Amino acid sequence: MKTNTDMIHYGSKSDYLNKKPTYISEDGGLSSKKATSSNSAKKMASDMKESVEGADISERAKKLANKDNLKKNGKEIVGAGKKILEEAKDVAKNTLKSPGVLTDFLGIGGSGSADEVEEAREIDTNGLKPPINKPAIFFIRGFELIGINDGGELKTMADNLPETEYYSWQDEDKMIEEIKRRPMEKPVVLVGHGMGSDTAVNIAQKLNKAEHGFRRVDLLVTMNSVGFDNDIIPQNVGKNLNFISDASSMFNDGPNIAKKSELTTVNNELRSESHDDIVESSEVQFKIFNGINDLLFDWKNAKSQSKSQDPKSS
To answer: What does the pLDDT look like over 252-263, one tens digit per residue?
Structure first.
């Protein structure tokens, strides 16, 4: 009977432990199970290290991780929260007719409210700075975080229209000041997205006061406005183009309504794009550009006709 020379004989348990079975390693050689496991673990660790060290960290991730950007993004989030709460408070204030537990809880009513104090602090800076002899065409971005959706298509549009300025939704007071530096006959165009749309309507409402001469906003463009009570377009607005996403949104104002239809034209357009994609729609961009160009063309023509009819100009 032929004996299998590959068979290993063990004299005892300790003898077995000292003569561990061999296995085929990944490189084709012989090694013990323990050695193979150890080598595999080392190889895996080495591969992981190379993968991590060679990982392509995107610019977006670097921006998010930047300490200064984290601080700015924190302020953006806090500011947006305060704005939404303030608007909710104003809605409640206008809805509730008598003081009670809810009004006390919200801090509404009584003299010396936050709004009254803020109005008392307003200073008319018109005249302290030289006038700006050009139209006010402002593009107003909404809530954005650095490294995620900063700038984008709205800034691209602003960069490709002459004499256009780009602002944050938080620059409301600054924009009002800049508009007041323009002569009354200069056109005013406000283009906003999200919370930027809400700010644009706020600006129009504030300009619609005697203290600002009921300053006219010739064109107001709102894209998926985020807010509570800014769907009533004041009488000082000539035309409002309102683009609304078909997707439901908790804070979306929805369709806009003219306070006085004989003075203001409101065009509500329901769009299939999402909140962010509305700004990227080439069709929406074309309508905005076309609306601004038509306005400036008509204004320049009216200005030329006025000069030709003025006897002093001849």
So the answer is: 668 999 999 999
- Identify the three-state secondary structure at position 261: coil
**Cβ-based neighbour number of residue 185 at 10 Å:** 11
Region label for 120, one of left (φ > 0), alpha (ψ between -120 and 50) or beta (otherwise): alpha
What are 56-88's pLDDT values in tens digits? 456 655 655 565 555 554 555 545 555 555 555
Packing angle, helices 67-95 and 195-207, rounded to 10: 50
Q: Which domains does the chain have, with CATH numbers?
A: 13-47 (no CATH), 65-121 (no CATH), 129-300 (3.40.50)
For residue 126, give every residue at least 6 positions away whose Cβ sits within 8 Å of its Cβ, in sequence order, or none: 177, 180, 181
Query: What Rg value do the Cα atoms of the chain yield, rounded?
Result: 33
Residues 122, 230: Cα–Cα separation, whole Å: 22
This prediction's pTM: 0.61
241-263 b/e with 16+ CB inside 10 Å = b? Answer: bbbbbeeeeeebbeebebeeeee
